[in-house]
Every structure is written in structure tokens, then in C-alpha cells.
Amino acid sequence: MFSVFDHLSGFCSVLLTYSISFFLGGLIGLERQIHQRIAGLRTNILVVLATTSFVNLCMRMGSTTDAIRVIASVVSGTGFLGAGVIMKDGMNVRGLNTAATIWCSAAVGTCVGIGQYAVAALLTFFVISGNTLLRPLVKWINHLPISKSEPDTSYYLTVTLKKNDHSKIQKRIFDKIDSLQYQVNSVELEKHDAEYFEMTIHLGHNVSDTQALSNLAIEIEGWENIQHVAWNSDL
């Protein structure tokens, strides 16, 4: 009789642990999904659950040493998983923040796995805060001039292009920008509709001739698979 109750108590403990992992991983993943990142809701939930299950299993077996080894393996293994979402998109590297978030999700799962629920919840709060509250600050810093001698104006080139062969189109655009010796600070690629992407190219502060920029927009808009091109500044 006691063994049945002990088994039921252990099952309830595991159920609670996994439920907390699912909830906290869901909170982190929801923020990523809202911003349409590569690793979204399901990925972060699975990372937290997997980490929790590995560590919790070792703890339930009463082997702290093995649990420490599993945690060390999780740290390195999650690094490889995060590396898979990092990609070079034209002249811009994407996925670094998503990879870091996956690593943090593994840390949350580890905390839950060893029973540190409050620490896991606190870490989840800071991960979500870092991904959301710091976003406006990062954008503001990116708009600051690199030095006082440089102009305060930043220019943006927005291109709506077809999804088919969009990589080739992007490369052609970057080659054209490079020929004009314009600096590219960052590139954002977002879904416009079922057929088109909208790519926003943040140019550096070395754009001095707006007429040349206007001519560039007109030229690109005449290319095949380009729906619309426009440029603007932050003035």
C-alpha cells in the first residue's frame, strides 16, 4: 500500500515539475513566437522540458554527481542547438539572440529539474524582460551617430520582393549597394504576405547624396520579382 502511495507521490512531483517547465518555457517561447523568430513557442518549450527531464531523472536516482555531468552536457549540447539557428542573411547575421534565448531556456529547465522553481521563474522573467524591455533601448542606440563628426541622419531602403529566389535578389541588391560604397548597419526581413517579403536595409551614416539613393531605389524597383522599393530617413 505504501509503495503505491509513494509511486503516486513521485508521479505527482514529476507532473508538477514538467508542468512548471511547460509553463515557463511557454512564456519564453511565446515572446519569440510573437516576434516571429526562428525558434518559437514549441522549440523553447521542448528545450526546457528536455533539460528538466534529464536533470530531474538524475536527481530522482539520487546521483548528484551524474546530475552535474548532465548539466555540463546540457550546456554544451544546447550550444550546438543554438548554433543551428544562427545564419548569415546577406551582409547581416541573424539568430544570435534566438540562440542565446535557447541557451537561457536550457538554464530554466535545469533550475526546474533540480527543484529550484523560484530561481527558474526569476530567470524566465529576466529572459523575457531582456528580449522585450531592452528592444527600444537597442533601437535607440543603433540610431546614434558613431562619432560627433558624422551626420545624425540614418537612411532606410525598404524593398518588397517575391519569396521565390529571394536570396539571389538580396545578393544582387547588396552588390549594388556595395558598388555605391554605402555602409549597411543591419537588415530586417519580415513576411509581407503569402507571396512577398519586406526587407528593410538600414544604411550607415555615409550616405551623402540622396539623389543617388533615389536613383538606386528606382533602379531596383525595375528588377524582376520586385513589387515596390522606397527609401526614407529618420529626420
How many domains? The number is 2
What proportion of the residues is helical, as a percent range? 55-70%
The count of β-strands is 6
- Based on secondary structure, the structural category is alpha+beta
Shape: elongated
Order of helices and strands: HHHEEHHHEHEEHE
* N→C terminal distance: 76 Å
Q: How large is the radius of gyration? A: 24 Å
Biggest sheet architecture: 4 strands, antiparallel
The percentage of residues in β strands lies in 15-25%
Provide mean pLDDT, rounded: 79
Helix count, DSSP H or I runs of 4 or more residues: 8
Pick out its properties.
235 residues; alpha+beta; Alpha-Beta Plaits; 4-stranded antiparallel sheet; two-stranded antiparallel sheet
Brief digest:
60% of the residues lie in helices and 16% in strands. With 235 residues, the chain is of the alpha+beta class. The chain is elongated and about 80 Å long.
Describe this structure in words.
The protein has 235 residues and is α+β, with helices and mostly antiparallel strands. Helix content is 60%, strand content 16%. The protein has two domains: 2-133, no CATH class; 155-233, Alpha-Beta Plaits (2-Layer Sandwich), CATH 3.30.70.260. It contains eight helices and six strands; from the N terminus they run αααββαααβαββαβ. The strands form two sheets. The protein has a four-stranded antiparallel sheet with strand order 4-5-3-6, with helices on one face. It has a two-stranded antiparallel sheet with strand order 1-2. A hairpin with a 2-residue loop joins β1 (87-89) and β2 (92-94). α1 packs antiparallel against α2 (41-60) and α2 packs antiparallel against α3. It is elongated and about 80 Å long. This is Protein MgtC. The chain crosses the membrane at residues 6-29, 41-62, 68-87, 99-128.
